[in-house]
Amino acid sequence: MDQGKRKSQWRHQALANALYSKIATGVYPVGSALPTERDIAADEQVSRATVREALRYLESHGMIRRRQGSGTIVIATEPQRLRMPLDSIDALLSYPRDTETVSGEGGRLDPDDPAFSEAELTADGDWHRLSFWRRRIGEVTPVSHIDVYLPQVYTAVAADIPAGGAVFQMVEKRFGVHPAEAVIRIDAVQIDARRAKVLGVEEGAAAVRITRRYSDENGRLYQVSVAVYPQDRYVFETVIRQKATPEKS
Questions:
Q1: Whole-prediction pTM
Q2: In order of start, what are the domains of the chain with their CATH numbers?
């Protein structure tokens, strides 16, 4: 990271910390409106770009809500993270509640696209990428970025994505293709430049990646999804219950 970029990051992080302190101590209580970007910039002697990045940070942590025409409202005094339970097959294949889908770009993959390696796509498929992101309902800042890879024949489901829901279910509904097997892998990664731009984070920031690979009853891979969650915006949790064993007589 170059020195100018690092200084910019320090400035907006320092401002976010200052605003967080004022929210936590009741200077700006829950339900109140923060000053305008212009006023904050003047009071803190920073640029409006720095203010926007600081507010984006607070919004991504669930502390404020920004809506056009109504300003920036305080909604929590402590950082909030979306909780995503991993306690069933349905949970592993679904998106978190209280979030909505925003469609992004899409198109056919070039043979040398890094996605072939990341998603372990078969070289003989005519693969297309559909990209979108998830955000809290009514908010602006994305909380996850998702790439879905499909053969060209199934790309009509792009029209269904804005309605929300799992893409493999859209494929099943439109084309009658049922996932006979789903392989799910969870690992830690650093966010690349393409996703960092959408998520509003620094390139190289830590994230959790969930890759889901769907195969039909003939063992043919027909969909791969790669979801990236910045490490400070989600909590993944699972519950393990031990069955009671009958007492021996």
A1: 0.66
A2: 3-74 (1.10.10.10), 82-237 (3.40.1410.10)
